[in-house]
Write a structure and sequence with these properties.
alpha+beta, six-stranded antiparallel beta sheet, 50% helix, elongated
Length: 221
């Protein structure tokens, strides 16, 4: 669990024992349960290395211990393909990861994998997966649709967490979470600039707001 928390904090800016972490874990659990999967995982996108990192796994504490921190290249396996295409993918596992040994009839490797990309607008932040070890188990289009919706909600959770953290940090003038992309870095710079104007000229907040509104209108035109 500790390594899982570190991965989430490093790549998504979500700390352990926060509502956001709890909601993400709940989404993974619910998604796996709804599609009849024995395990479900959340992988985060490492923009610098351009690959995915396992951040949490539900269904097996042993699997989570082994999987967290493992990396999956973009385009490799079902999860990597979902990240590359930005679309839900279903199929047999084609990329090997170290798996925990499972007891009895579940000692065989995964038979079917379902993966849905987590997006903020069109920016990839991670992938949600569901895994079945049952012979003859195949995920279908209804499972894919449901997982796409669960992944979309997870993306909203990450987006709102980062926006709140950025606004709070700008107000307190403290270190903020690392930006996901160049676009987000620009957004943070804009927030900084506005916050600095408001701090330096508190009596001019109304005028600053009008100026920004005017600028937004000009840019839109």
């Amino acid at each position: 669990m500790a390594r899982s928390n570190r991965v989430l904090d490093t790549y998504l800016g979500i700390s352990s024992k926060t509502p956001e972490e709890a909601v993400l874990r709940l989404l993974v659990e619910m998604g796996a349960q709804f599609v009849g999967a024995e395990e479900g995982s959340l992988l985060v996108f490492d923009e610098k290395r351009k690959d995915l990192v396992f951040a949490m796994t539900i269904g097996s504490a042993a699997s989570e211990k082994i999987l967290v921190g493992q990396r999956v290249p973009l385009g490799k396996g079902i999860a990597g393909l979902a990240a590359q295409t930005r679309e839900v993918q279903i199929g047999a596992p084609t990329f090997g990861t170290r798996q925990a040994k499972r007891q009895g009839a579940k000692s065989e490797p995964p038979k079917s994998v379902l993966a849905a990309p987590m997006l903020i607008n069109d920016r990839l932040v991670g992938v949600l997966t569901a895994v079945s070890f049952q012979k003859g188990k195949f995920f279908n289009s209804n499972d894919a649709l449901l997982y796409a919706r669960v992944a979309a909600v997870a993306g909203v959770v990450v987006e709102q967490s980062r926006r709140l953290a950025t606004l709070e940090a700008a107000g307190k003038d403290i270190l903020r979470p690392r930006a996901i992309s160049e676009e987000e870095r620009c957004e943070q710079q804009l927030v900084d600039a506005v916050a600095q104007l408001a701090r330096n000229k508190p009596q001019a907040k109304a005028r600053i707001a009008r100026l920004l509104t005017d600028i937004a209108g000009l840019v839109a035109d």
